[in-house]
Amino acid sequence: MNLRGETGTSLGGREEGSDRQRRDRKREEERGVKKNGQVTVKKPPPRPTPDSTGADLSRADQPEPGLEHCTALAVFTCACEELQTALDASGNEDAKGRLSALHWSLGEAPEVGVSFMECVGEQMQAGGRMLAPDLVEDALLSYDLTKSCAYQSRFSRESVLRYLHASGDLLAQVVNSARSCGIAEGNCALGKVLRRVTGSPDGATLARELGRFKDSEEFKYVAAATNRMKHRSFLPGSITASLNEDWSSVSVAQVTGGFTHDQGGYSASSLEELCGRTDVLRGLATRVLVEVMTLGVQTGVKPVS
Question: Which structural domain range is residue 241 located in?
């Protein structure tokens, strides 16, 4: 598992001074310090305690001191790295494998998907400068470009949603294995792990953090979107390009359309909102992993298969 927050995926060359290059430099600065071609994540300070700060850490929406300039991905990555160290010491290889899958599903995979969506947006923005002067040929090329970008955008958007949904089961598997809850692998799910840790003498805080992840609006959204795609019907979405008012530039919007699932209705959301949901889930998962480390991990006992 690459715990530096880097995917190692090349998405092609970039023009010097391009918007994408500037965004990538900003992300590197947010994630850490680049040294000898490697990115080292800036680790957050030690987690404060209520005794030392007087803060109410039971509030999920309250930022912890010293973390305001760290991205959710960097903090989640640090938590995974620290838990992996604890699992190394305990010899719990089963939990390590599940943690690696969780880090990919909630950490790196969404980053790759969003990067592809940004690349698709840049294709749409640059497309007008590559079309033919002949009107008919121009229309055909425009159609082909739009169709290709729509497919790429849809694939990336749906992949991110599916990975985010999978992170719920993977988080449950990590807790089940690291804390030796004893739930069979095939029956392990967030709800069952939540009930198991709720019944343990020292599991109140862990149960609370797991419940926040499970009951969050962000997880409910990705669960509904994924289940609709898997079991019901096509999930609406679009990618559109439009000239700004002064005709000086092109704006691209990639949108997941509104939908209903079971008794819930969900409004359309943008790429930026998808990124926001991802960061919220990373933050909630981080709190679960920190509590697992606080309680201590169990030695390697593989759950019943």
Answer: 23-43+67-295
